[in-house]
């Protein structure tokens, strides 16, 4: 990759890393499932109007939208809303990488190499350490919720692998059409009309400015702009060269959450997070890594 493309990759990393404190701000105004519904509604509108539909079956589009959109983001946002620090969430969600390898081995019969097995094992040790410490210092439920989001991401990666779309950006925009209505119904059923109404009733107050800006950032920069740039990189370079940059996202996520939200990371969490990232990087150096692992980020 030349300097220009490396700079683009680092810009995407920054946009995705800043997504986590922006999400934390947005969740101060909107309940988690409603926020996910709003995110995808705002993406689906321009997708339907301006983006050509990818040459992928509707069954796969729905499967990807259900896993990457509904499962991943409803659980991720619920975990952050329940108390998971945004910076730490940016690390825990990386569990999607080893889970993708395992799910691909089970569902697609892709051979799990010894190299990948070692990387998965190292990541699991790091994640277990995070869960253990969270259980000792606070409720473990937020961590479990984020891990469920990571599982949804991994299943979506496998479905993306099956789709094998030639244009990752078009596919991303179109699977975003799937989540809005199911998420809106889930929000109404779980979060309730009173809570939803209150979030909209106070949306024009001064206190809502940062949360609304956070939501707009997640939609405009973290989703549309970053995905478009990432897809352009994948179109010009092998995923094995692009994917390692994404491992810098948790670094930016933790650093920006520290600077913006005052979340001072515990040394134990930093060490456990380093294990997770090291395991993912180790596994990603195997030539058997599913390309979808590099194609979709939060």
TrEMBL record:
Transmembrane segments: 36-53, 60-80, 86-108, 115-133, 139-159, 171-190, 210-230, 242-261
Keyword Membrane included in the entry's annotation: yes
Top-level taxon: Bacteria
Keyword annotations of the record: Membrane, Transmembrane, Transmembrane helix
Main location per the UniProt record: membrane
Bilayer topology: Multi-pass membrane protein
Domain EamA: start-end pairs: 8-131, 144-284
InterPro entries the UniProt entry points to: AA-Vitamin_Transporters, EamA_dom, EmrE-like
Intracellular or extracellular location(s): Membrane
Family note: Belongs to the EamA transporter family.
Name used for this protein in its record: EamA family transporter
């Amino acid at each position: 990759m030349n300097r220009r493309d490396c700079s683009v990759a680092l810009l995407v990393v920054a946009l995705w890393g800043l997504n986590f404190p922006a999400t934390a701000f947005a969740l101060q105004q909107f309940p988690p499932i409603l926020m996910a519904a709003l995110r995808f509604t705002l993406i689906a509108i321009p997708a339907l109007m301006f983006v050509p539909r990818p040459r992928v079956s509707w069954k796969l589009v729905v499967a990807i939208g259900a896993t990457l959109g509904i499962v991943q983001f409803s659980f991720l946002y619920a975990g952050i809303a329940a108390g998971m620090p945004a910076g730490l969430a940016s690390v825990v969600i990386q569990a999607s990488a080893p889970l993708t390898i395992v799910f691909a081995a089970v569902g697609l019969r892709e051979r799990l190499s010894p190299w990948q097995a070692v990387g998965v094992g190292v990541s699991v040790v790091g994640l277990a350490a995070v869960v253990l410490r969270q259980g000792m210092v606070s409720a473990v439920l937020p961590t479990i919720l984020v891990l469920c989001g990571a599982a949804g991401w991994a299943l979506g990666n496998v479905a993306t692998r099956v789709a094998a779309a030639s244009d990752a950006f078009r596919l991303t925009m179109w699977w975003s059409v799937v989540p809005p209505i199911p998420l809106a119904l889930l929000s109404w059923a779980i979060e309730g009309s009173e809570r939803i109404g209150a979030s909209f009733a106070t949306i024009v107050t001064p206190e809502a400015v940062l949360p609304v800006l956070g939501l707009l950032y997640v939609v405009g920069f973290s989703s549309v702009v970053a995905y478009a740039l990432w897809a352009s990189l994948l179109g010009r370079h092998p995923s094995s060269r692009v994917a390692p940059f994404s491992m810098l996202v948790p670094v930016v996520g933790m650093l920006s959450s520290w600077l913006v939200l005052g979340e001072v990371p515990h040394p134990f969490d930093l060490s456990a997070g380093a294990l997770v990232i090291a395991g993912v990087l180790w596994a990603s150096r195997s030539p058997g890594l599913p390309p979808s692992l590099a194609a979709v980020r939060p």
